[in-house]
Amino acid sequence: MVLTNDTDSVRKQSEFDLSTYLGERQALVEAALDQSLPIKPPSTIYEAMRYSLLAGGKRLRPILCLASCELVGGTVEMAMPTACALEMVHTMSLIHDDLPAMDNDDYRRGKLTNHKVYGDDIAILAGDGLLVYAFEVVATQTQNVPAPRVLKAIAHLAHAFGADGVVGGQVVDIQCEGKLDTTVETLHFIHTHKTGALLEACVVCGAILGGAADEDLQRLSRYAQNIGLAFQIIDDILDITKTQEELGKTAGKDLQAQKATYPSIWGLEESTRQAQELIEQAKAELASFGNKAIPLLTLADFITNRSN
Predict the structure, then answer these.
(1) Residue 248 maps to a domain
(2) Where, if anywhere, are coiled coils annotated (predicted)?
(3) Which one is predicted more confidently, 218 or 181?
(4) CA distance from start to end of the chain
(5) CA distances from 256 to 98, 115, 250, 252, 260 (A)
(6) N or C: which end of the chain has fewer CB within 10 A?
(7) What is the b/e burial string over 288-306, where b = at least 16 CB atoms within 10 angstroms of the residue's CB?
């Protein structure tokens, strides 16, 4: 009986049209993002915020938030403000990462980076504006969700981005730049915080809003932690195997900056194997959800199969 159920799940996953799913969800997210951030005085800061926020991208983070909310019985409408907020926070991190004081990048998503268009000062403020506005959006635009769930989601997102999450990972990343003795353990710390913490928040916040039980939140947290680390491993691989045109951002930056990466420690073949193993572990965490988990299962595979 278990075998039959497993076979049925594999069949339904293979029939799931990820391209259509992503296209529909991306369109919903783009419309919500556009509507959530109108231009008003002082127009320069809102234009700068919108420049990076609406620059395209896969919108993987908000889509994960929507998918996890639906998985546990919630709706797209319940999670959309938080999904938008997650993309705002992510965009803020990209704007600041690209600054001369950080990664000093000229291109992001195939366009000039924010500071190249608006200057360092406005870019810093645009990132600041997106960060604080994200929490305002969750608090004021979330509807038909009990207040304790909204508060819990806000707290989880704040923790994920702070010194125990993205900020902490970025600090260690900066401190390790140029060090040839960076260990795998340190690299894991950097990326479970810098990349994985926000991806984990996307999945968990969506589930919180949908009313997930604690045991389901734990499963989804482990799922997200695994895909987050796999995402970074694949990012490291793409950085040295793809061109700037294919990536939409400067290629080979990690090598130029003498940053430790998974391929530099493990090599390409082992890095690919490790990423795939993490994806399989992530998918195993969703077994109890049955066919309802097909969007999240397919999104996990998408992470290792992407080309940018």
Answers:
(1) yes
(2) 265-292
(3) 218
(4) 40
(5) 15, 21, 11, 6, 11
(6) N
(7) ebeeebbbbbbbbbbbbee
Residue-wise burial string across 211-248, b where 16 or more C-beta atoms lie within 10 A, e elsewhere:
ebeeebbebbbbbbbbbbbbbbbbbbbbbeebeeeebb
Q: Which domain holds residue 71?
A: 18-305
- Cβ contacts of residue 75 below 8 Å, gap of 6+? 69, 144, 210
Q: How far apart are CA 297 and CA 12, in angstroms?
A: 11
- Angle between helix axes 184-194 and 196-210 (nearest 10 degrees) is 40
Q: How far apart are CA 88 and CA 74, in angstroms?
A: 22
Q: In the chain, which ranges are E strands?
A: 107-108, 111-112
For residue 193, what is the domain's CATH number?
A: 1.10.600.10
User: Does residue 141 form part of some domain?
Assistant: yes
Percentage, residues of the chain above pLDDT 90: 80
Tokens of 35: 């509507």
Domain count, the chain: 1
178 vs 175, more confident: 175
CB 191 within 8 A of CB 229: yes
Residue type, 73: G
Residues 6+ apart with CB under 8 A from 256: none
In a domain? residue 10: no
Residue range 6-26: mean pLDDT, rounded: 81
Q: Is residue 161 part of a domain?
A: yes
What would the pLDDT profile of 72-111 be if each residue is shown by its tens digit?
999 999 999 999 999 999 999 999 999 999 989 999 988 9
